[in-house]
Design goal:
single chain, 343 residues, alpha/beta, D-Maltodextrin-Binding Protein, domain 2, 2 domains, 11 strands
């Protein structure tokens, strides 16, 4: 009897000490999302969780997938809605409201959603980047305004992305719409007459057409990100004393993108989802983002890496359009743009 009792105690103790299976949290993202494993692992260990990142195309395609599958959600959390798709996301009724206590460290300028369906995570500017060497060698002044780009001096020197197929392309088109209002199509007609080159996506524009990255392209100006100069230095195989590129950051020449995260309706991991959003706003996560996705953290206590401080730029007066205005007009503006620029 005594041996049986001791065996029973041993078995009960063993069962009690056996760790429970980790909770799984699926986070749907766009394809550009990245985070260090050394950052995610401690969160998983602290919460007995397994985080699965479900990359689902560019920001627009990922949001479409989340909306189309709302009756049978593929994930618990969605990251990657930006202010160009903001109203579309909040009106689709796919998110549950959550107000993170970590928002206390986020400036009010990033709060676009009074219903707390979407929480700001990062931001950055889409601007025109230029090849420093080209302008120096040609003794040509760098354009300072959108209007400068239609001057004869800059004929055939700019490559942009199609706003129907590219996020930075859409952002730049929106900058022109914000600056010129109803006259933005006249501006694009002038750009077309001045030899603007249009390609489908950022990778083609930056790595094939732009002379500042590969050194082989024909255009010394490209629509890209204001963090691209920092990326050039960071990823260079040889040490650089200065970035070979820089951004044009005059008034209305850039468009600021803000990215958000939200809890998808239907999640069975509501508590863990809340913890993950809090985690995304923590300094640990926020300070990892700049060199993972080349965006700026919204947590005002986060420190930037040195390469960002030296070479990345932010516009003091970025172009701005209300998210509901973008949502109401985006598709029509794109179709108007296609009719003027591509036909």
């Amino acid at each position: 009897m005594k041996r049986f009792f001791l065996l029973l105690v041993f078995l009960l103790t063993a069962c009690a000490s056996k760790p429970s299976e980790p909770q799984t949290l699926t986070v749907m993202t766009h394809d550009s999302f990245a985070v260090s494993e050394t950052v995610v692992k401690p969160f998983e260990q602290a919460n007995n969780a397994k985080i699965i990142f479900l990359q689902s195309g560019d920001a627009g395609a990922a949001l479409n997938k989340a909306i189309l599958t709302k009756d049978a959600p593929l994930a618990d959390v969605f990251f990657g809605v930006d202010n160009t798709f903001f109203s579309r996301a909040t009106s689709a009724n796919i998110f549950e409201a959550y107000q993170s206590p970590a928002l206390a460290n986020v400036p009010a300028v990033f709060f676009l959603d009074p219903t707390n369906q979407l929480t700001p995570v990062d931001y950055g500017d889409v601007c025109i980047n230029y090849d420093k060497a080209y302008f120096k060698n040609k003794n040509l002044a760098v354009p300072k305004t959108l209007e400068d780009l239609i001057k004869p001096d800059y004929k055939n020197l700019l490559v942009v992305e199609n706003p129907a197929t590219s996020s930075p392309g859409l952002a730049f088109m929106l900058a022109t719409r914000a600056h010129f209002g109803d006259g933005y199509l006249d501006y694009w007609r002038a750009l077309k007459d001045n030899g603007v080159v249009v390609v489908d996506g950022w990778e083609t524009a930056y790595y094939t057409n732009f002379s500042g990255s590969s050194g082989r392209g024909s255009q010394p100006m490209v629509v890209s990100y204001a963090t691209s100069p920092a990326a050039e230095v960071f990823f260079s195989e040889t040490a650089m004393k200065d970035a070979p590129t820089a951004s044009i950051i005059g008034p209305d020449t850039c468009f600021r993108q803000i990215e958000f995260v939200g809890i998808l309706k239907g999640t069975r991991q509501r508590t863990l989802a809340e913890k993950f959003i809090d985690f995304m706003l923590s300094q640990q996560f926020q300070e990892d983002m700049p060199l993972q996705m080349f965006v700026y953290p919204v947590n005002q206590n986060s420190k930037l890496p040195e390469v960002f401080v030296k070479y990345a730029q932010l516009a003091k007066e970025p172009a701005a359009l209300a998210s509901d205005v973008i949502a109401a007009n985006r598709d029509a503006w794109i179709q108007e743009w296609i009719a003027v620029v591509l036909k």
